[in-house]
């Protein structure tokens, strides 16, 4: 009697010897570090789109996003952020020219409009550490993407991805600990090492103490 096996993606296999991608018997078996096995050709095709196991979603290698070409510039200001009145702030300026969507975007060959965004961090030791992480995320094309704007409803525009930023100096909640938690989750999802996870947790504690 054949047994069935369920993956986290909802795919049902007849047995553990079947490939979770093509659902046939595994050919030229390739086993990942997470110990899940697939047809070599099947998993290679999946990794071209996303280097993650289709069963457990464990990332293998370095993950990069779909952020279009742009620049990230940083300057300093005397203005103070709520909860960090003891220091000025770091002003992050993201700039993106207009361009054509690539194969990794929703509508390859379709034009998208350029944009610029401004964000703020406290100009202190903890803020510098977060800035360093954001630079890494920017270099890995993780901060922005191209898609549908939640605020305007327009398609084929540059939008924020899943890393939260403070975009206004005044108002808003004491966002930093929550934003750092989101940053931590994003970095882990994208394959950052455990040491970086510990570092971000320490930064969160530093922000909590600073905002008391």
From TrEMBL:
GO annotations of cellular component type = cytoplasm
Instruction: Name the InterPro entries for this protein.
Output: Deltex_C, Deltex_C_sf, Deltex_fam, Znf_RING, Znf_RING/FYVE/PHD, Znf_RING_CS
According to the UniProt entry, what is the EC number of this protein? 2.3.2.27
RING-type domain: which residues? 19-57
One biological process term in Gene Ontology: Notch signaling pathway
Domain of life, per UniProt, equals: Eukaryota
Keyword RNA-binding found: no
Where does this polypeptide localize?
Answer: Cytoplasm
Pathway(s): Protein modification; protein ubiquitination
A Pfam short name: zf-C3HC4_2
Q: Which GO terms describe its molecular function?
A: ubiquitin protein ligase activity; zinc ion binding
Catalyzed reaction equations: S-ubiquitinyl-[E2 ubiquitin-conjugating enzyme]-L-cysteine + [acceptor protein]-L-lysine = [E2 ubiquitin-conjugating enzyme]-L-cysteine + N(6)-ubiquitinyl-[acceptor protein]-L-lysine
Task: For this UniProt record, give its keywords in alphabetical order, as a comma-separated list.
Answer: Cytoplasm, Metal-binding, Transferase, Zinc, Zinc-finger
Q: Which family does it belong to?
A: Belongs to the Deltex family.
Query: What protein does this entry describe?
Result: E3 ubiquitin-protein ligase
State the organism named in the record. Answer: Dicentrarchus labrax
